[in-house]
# Entry
Amino acid sequence: MKNFKSRALKFLAAALIVPALGAALNAQGQTPAPAPIKLAMIESLSGPFANTGEAVYRNLAWAAERVNARGGVKLPGGNRPLVIERYDNKGQNEEALSTLRSAIDEGAQYVMQGNSSSTAAALLDAINKHNEREPAKRVLFLNYSAVDPALTNEKCSYWHFRFDAHADMRMTALMQVLKDDAGVKSAYLIGQDYSFGQSVLREARRQLGLQRPDVQIVGDELHPVGRVKDFLPYVSKIKASGANAVITGNWGNDLTLLIKAAKDVGYDGKFYTFYGNALGAPAAIGDAGIGRVVAVADWLPNVQTPQSDAFYQAFRQRFPKPVEDYVHMRMQLMIEALVQGMEKAASVSPTAVAAQLEGLRVSQFGQGGVMRASDHQFQQTLVVGMMDKQGAPGVKFDVEGSGYGFRVVKTITAAQAEMPTSCKMTRPQ
# Structure
């Protein structure tokens, strides 16, 4: 697997560099083209969540490749290719801030991150201060996964754009399924002990009170992020509580190990999850998850449209198995939106591009959405899926070669998923 990852990274690097080199010469092979546009990805590329960082990189690199394959970003003075620069924050906020400084020093005007709301908040605060201190070197923050609602509410910023649905939106979608699940009489809430995990449990409790006041909450527990190696003590409590369902926002190994431990102790309740559809979770639970693991997403491979099928098949051709199926439409839409913003602004200036991103509509492979100008929260359709065996009705594609996939059981339109915001944004003069 290590050798496969090494080869994959070299292939990705070559795929990004070759278009840039090809564009660097004119028809006579002499005149250098404009420099590539650097996009800095700051993620955990080592440690317990390294697999999530590498999976994000595949998505972003693939999106950049497709832009470069059609000639790059069309700008006055010539087309410019995109280059994804990788920065490892090692799962630490201090490292994230250090890599942010390095990225800016190395010329990146666009920073991308998502796999931790705590890290996102730290980066956003630093970017806000940097942009105020150095207006000639402003930076834009593109967020694809950090879903703490505060980031587009009380902490909203002109320099931050979120392309994922925030936690309250995701919980609202899950509740559209749970409210009709007559088998759920009691629920156990468990999550990671940081801003995102805390907001998930808080919103789960609130929405259960509104949608299913008959459901008894028999547990409400937070655990350290990325440090629990054995979830047996946690799932033993869950099983002993008699909970019919677990509600969790856990992601990465914290979700996979939780679900695996539940299988080991024979817990037979349902899992209502934010991320139970990828990165090892389906394989970890196996047949025990059929009809019992629920996941919410902006898109799932088994969305039943020809465009969706074409999108997923193209990803699988680009990244043949064995590779985690952490493929996300929103990351592709984010890169497309950025390119459209640059081309509309006829500039790569973050200030000019931000103005074009506000209210921008973007679509691809039959999926799309609009960036709400008031808080920079992307508005899009959400889907809820139920785990089942590949080949069952609605499950054309499995996950990670596991033999299990997710059939769509509920589609929530962008209008239904939309929620009010408390954002009071300060815009640059």
